[in-house]
Design goal:
The complex is a heterodimer of chains A (126) and B (137).
Chain A: H1 7-13, H2 19-44, H3 51-59, H4 67-94, H5 98-123
Helix pairs in contact in A: 2-4, 3-4, 4-5
Chain B: H1 3-6, H2 27-59, H3 61-71, H4 74-101, H5 108-133
Classes of the chains: A mainly alpha (126), B mainly alpha (137).
Chain lengths: 126, 137
């Protein structure tokens, strides 16, 4: 694999070589896990879960701060960021022509940014 | 060189689509490719199935009841079961990757064992949520 003398060459171009993306993918995974496990526990420990109790998980406020919405939005943004790395990896592995890959990556970004906007709109209506 | 070593064997340097079914992946490899497939499924389902469902479930009491009606159809239940599996698989295999990233269980034997555990846990969770979905309990 890589020799020891590769460091100097790498520094010249100043690329990140995916380390920040690698970390971000894992950090967003942990954020989503914590949110979903928290939500799942809340659901499991809520007797007679109906509309009123379900919507409270997303529109509860703490000192007039819309915490339910903010937490859900943070989980959603983590999801979009996480999915961007994952789907981009799929295109990079299987789609070799640069133009097609670029097109698919643009579509992926539009798909995810659109989803994030949709989620924000859903959350801020309740 | 013994005769057995020089015998012609199939070589897969770069797997072609037509060879996928003949190529036997180890258990961790199957977990890995399914992690990718389940992630792609969830990505596709996000704005066309998951968010519209979430929208209806929290928008109003009327749409909440409407949502319950939609979910009572067997076709919708089967689609949801697929997505539940995708979520559970992606979650469990993902936790395994986080543990591997901490350099825990990276030798061949424990990696195979943890892959088996991930499959076991995700399929068991899928079964539990699936039975709940189909109204068994």
């Amino acid at each position: 694999m890589a020799g020891n003398n590769i460091g100097a060459k790498r520094l010249v171009v100043g690329a990140h070589y995916g380390l920040s993306e690698w970390i971000a993918q894992r950090v967003t995974a942990v954020i989503m896990s914590v949110y979903t496990i928290g939500l799942l526990i809340a659901v499991l420990f809520t007797p007679d879960l109906g509309y009123e109790k379900w919507v409270r998980f997303f529109n509860f406020e703490v000192f007039a701060l819309p915490l339910g919405k903010i937490l859900a939005l943070l989980a959603m943004l983590s999801l979009c960021y996480h999915a961007w790395f994952g789907i981009r990896d799929i295109w990079m592995d299987y789609v070799k022509p640069t133009g097609v890959r670029l097109g698919l990556q643009v579509l992926t970004i539009l798909w995810l940014v659109g989803s994030a906007g949709y989620a924000a709109q859903i959350l801020w209506r309740v | 060189m013994s005769n057995a070593a020089s015998k012609q064997r199939p070589v897969y340097r770069n797997i072609h689509v037509t060879q996928i079914l003949r190529y036997r992946l180890p258990l961790a490899g199957q977990l890995s490719i399914l992690h990718r497939i389940s992630g792609a499924l969830l990505f596709l389902a996000l704005p066309v199935i998951l968010l519209p469902m979430f929208d209806r479930s929290i928008s109003s009491e009327i749409s909440f009841e409407e949502m319950k009606g939609i979910v009572s159809s067997p076709f919708v239940k089967i689609v949801l079961l697929g997505l539940i599996w995708a979520y559970m698989h992606h979650f469990c295999a993902g936790i395994r990757y986080l543990v591997l990233d901490l350099h825990i269980g990276t030798d061949k034997d424990s990696a195979r064992k943890s892959a088996a555990v991930s499959f076991g846990v995700s399929l068991a969770l899928t079964a539990v949520f699936g039975l709940k979905l189909f109204g068994v309990f």
